[in-house]
Amino acid sequence: MPGNRGRLKSVVVGVAITGAAPAFAQSSVTLYGIVDTGLGYQSSQTTLGSTSGGRSAVKMVNGVWAGSRFGLKGAEDLGGETKAIFQLEEGFNSATGAQSTSGLMFNRQALVGVTNPRYGSLTAGRQYASYYQLLSPYSPTTWLTGFYGAHPGDLDGLDTIYRANNTLLYMSPKIGGFTFSGSYSLAGVPGSVNQGSTWSVAAQYAMGPVGLAAGFSRINNSTVNGGAFGADSTTSSAGGQAGVSAVTNGYQTAQAQQRFAVGAGYKFNSQFDITATYSNVQYIPGAGSAFRDLAIFNTGGIVLHWKPTAVWDFATGYSYTRATKANGIMSSAQYQQFNLSEYYSLSKRTGLYALQAYQRANGETLAPAGNGTNIIDATATIGDGFQTTPSSSRSMFAVGAGIIHRF
């Protein structure tokens, strides 16, 4: 009997190990990344808010075609087609080795959640709001890059600048071509569920050659009634405010930012496709804001993409942004931007690229001045790669070329 019990125990342990093996086999963790470095030229560079003293500049640039990064992502099969998922992603400056956002180890994404092909996915952490996730396929940044091709200053958040902390996001499965998503970011400000929060809803239809999406997003400043952007605001990056540029410099103290956008795309064949976007962006003042009237920016843009061979991609784009007259401005700010891009695939993972862009600004805008604002001439700021180094004049020309490797 003792021998039989010993043999039975061995069988039970063996069965347990055998039964556990498939679960381990269905778990996976992937290390991935991008390194992107090049050289860039801009015809005029000055400090944010300045309208004089601009000089041309040649410098090394990084993360132009796609932001340099490394990350980990994984999934574990929980049974019934449900999986636990996670993603941790850090951005870095490939020219210096520094973090792209000082003080944030996983500044691009840090999330965990569950997913099921029938019910969709629910994730929690620092991530992109629903607005961006469903509109991004029609963004100008797909082929023109965010660095050179985002709408001026990435005003409408169609690039990857606006990541939200403490976010719960639901993404539906694709049903008859439709996908729906909603996200809410909790600021955790005592006594208020709204102050500092971010919320977003979006829908997308994609079937065959046709694609269409619409989204809405609202970002609330955690500073009561507006003022200096609060560190508890959910789009804060280590206490800093995202999306500040020569376009929005005078509106940093808004009580809230609100974005609505629609995007569409059509693929004619394997060589030609077209995308277009329209956005309405509002900077909403509060009692503590340095500006007093609602500031509204409307932007329309179009991108043509041509792939003549397996290794070449070309694109051209145009966008027009116009602000409304408000806050004492009699000549509203206007920005016209023209873009070209060329990409050559050396392999599936490595490519060479070149980019050219020109922007012309007209009208007036606001700049911070002490506790208030000044009306100044609108100055050019191409894409979102020149947020802190805009032109000192109404025009800017910029070119860049580089190499990108994905692993």
TrEMBL record:
Residues 15-362 form the Porin domain. Homotrimer. One of its GO terms (biological process) is monoatomic ion transport. GO terms for cellular component: cell outer membrane; pore complex. It comes from the Bacteria. It is a multi-pass membrane protein. GO terms for molecular function: porin activity. It is found in: Cell outer membrane. Its main location: membrane. Residues 1-25 form the signal peptide. PANTHER family: MAJOR OUTER MEMBRANE PROTEIN P.IA (PTHR34501:SF9), PROTEIN YDDL-RELATED (PTHR34501). SUPFAM superfamilies: Porins (SSF56935). This is Porin. The keyword Cytoplasm does not apply. Keywords: Cell outer membrane, Ion transport, Membrane, Porin, Signal, Transmembrane, Transmembrane beta strand, Transport. The keyword Transmembrane applies.
